[in-house]
Recover the amino acids of this structure.
């Protein structure tokens, strides 16, 4: 019996360790870098304190880029009409310099709180050092743009965050 | 001492001449005053050419359709022969709205054309428009509607504001609705105090 226990211990020590799966990926962010937004058409509506970007809308801040079909910038008249929020909808894709690609139905970048929130069918695809791809799926991803940390929240119907591994 | 009848006749003639001169002067002032009350008028330091076709250091004042006052200045306003109220301008400087108001629009350029009938000014040679107190638009060429304050730019332009810079390939701007439509545009956002 003692021999059997010892054998199991030896076999277990020979097995490769289980791969650590990060359900809260880190992003390469530069919150102090200037923000540039571009689109085929930008309509600045001064009376509504907003700008609507349509046609290949694109946001770039340092290492990070965000693209979507439509974006809306919200300006705060109490702070010299400084931009405070960016809302992106339809085909939202965010890419950082590490090549980590995130997709979602919508995104909201709160510039004042330095938080990026992606919602609706969120997927974060990342390539590991060994060439393996991992795809993290959930319904809501909140990224702290100050330190790049994030938190994926689950689909309320299933209560699960899913990770897919692909060679 | 008897009065000289010849001397009396001369005095009457002098009084008549003075009265006619005064009447003519008053009539002139009346015409000028009526001009001030409606429409616009030119002041010019050195009107030259036939029928004041070219006006130096000219100032055009008036009110637009919305009752907004405007003042247009130029080193030269040259009226085009046979084209009605169309002027070629050198160094135009056009202000729409009272300088005391916050929504004043001021347009300057190296040269321009102004159609007094339509109110449309086409500005060229590094045209600059200041809208309100903190927005500036620069472009090689632009059309400025002096009646409405609307702008049309069909070429590269830059709009600067303390918290953003917009570079675009074109702009259609409605002054009344405060709506600006940019094509192929890039906005660089700045935080307050950021260079």
């Amino acid at each position: 019996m003692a021999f059997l226990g010892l054998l199991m211990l030896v076999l277990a020590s020979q097995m490769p360790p289980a791969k650590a799966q990060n359900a809260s990926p880190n992003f390469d962010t530069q919150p102090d870098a200037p923000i540039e937004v571009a689109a085929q058409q930008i309509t600045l509506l001064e009376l509504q304190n907003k700008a609507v970007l349509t046609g290949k809308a694109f946001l770039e801040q340092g290492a990070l880029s965000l693209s979507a079909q439509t974006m809306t910038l919200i300006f705060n008249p109490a702070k010299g009409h400084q931009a405070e929020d960016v809302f992106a909808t339809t085909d939202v894709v965010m890419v950082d310099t590490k090549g980590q690609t995130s997709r979602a139905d919508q995104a909201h970048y709160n510039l004042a709180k330095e938080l990026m929130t992606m919602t609706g069918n969120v997927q974060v695809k990342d390539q590991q050092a060994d060439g393996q791809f991992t795809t993290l799926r959930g319904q809501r991803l909140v990224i702290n743009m100050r330190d790049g940390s994030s938190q994926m929240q689950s689909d309320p119907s299933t209560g699960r965050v899913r990770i897919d591994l692909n060679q | 001492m008897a009065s000289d009848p010849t001397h009396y006749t001369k005095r009457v003639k002098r009084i008549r001449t003075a009265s006619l001169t005064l009447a003519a002067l008053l009539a002139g002032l009346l015409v000028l005053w009526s001009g001030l009350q409606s429409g616009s008028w030119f002041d010019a330091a050195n009107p030259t050419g036939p029928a004041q076709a070219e006006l130096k250091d000219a100032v055009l004042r008036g009110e637009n359709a919305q009752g907004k006052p405007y003042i247009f200045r130029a080193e030269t306003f040259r009226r085009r022969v046979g084209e009605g109220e169309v002027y070629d301008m050198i160094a135009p400087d056009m202000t729409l709205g009272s300088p005391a108001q916050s929504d004043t629009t001021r347009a300057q350029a190296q040269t321009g054309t102004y159609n007094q009938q339509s109110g449309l000014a086409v500005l060229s040679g590094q045209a600059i428009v200041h809208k309100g107190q903190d927005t500036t638009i620069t472009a090689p060429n632009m059309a400025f509607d002096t009646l409405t304050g609307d702008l049309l730019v069909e070429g590269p332009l830059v709009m600067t504001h303390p918290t953003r810079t917009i570079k675009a390939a074109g702009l259609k701007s409605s002054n009344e609705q405060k709506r600006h439509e940019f094509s192929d545009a890039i906005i660089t956002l700045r935080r307050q105090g950021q260079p």
